[in-house]
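Q: Got a minute? One more chain.
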Amino acid sequence: MIGLTRPMVGWLWMAGAILTEIVATAALTYSQGLTRVPVVAVTAVLYVASYVCLARALYAGVEVSVGYAVWSGVGTAALAVIGAALFGESLTVSRIAAIVLIICGVVLLQLTATPASAQPARIESTPPSAALTADGLLPRSP
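A: Always. Here it is, folded:
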């Protein structure tokens, strides 16, 4: 490992969540109302990947209030720009102002987040009834 701290790992997962969500949402434009099955399949996989990355970011210590706001806010702002650049959507002064406000809100949330050192310790033990198999996907049978 190259010396990544837990918060750094959380934000790397967050970047993955944002990127996959942006690509998935942009891909919806090419699905022709969910009628193009291959595009719909790729979109669904990307949305699942986005939620997995978001969940891993939260597990790594990103606060849910900050994480969700960053994920949705950055995605919304990026898609407004992508919509204008790729799909010919209008980018008016009011839309640009809204994007700036989203970015300011995300920055303010991050600046006011509780430092990881001040957060309560998480309980890492899993009750036997909720333990997962080695692959981490299915509950163990009794």
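A: DSSP finds four helices and no strands in the chain.
Q: Perfect, thanks.
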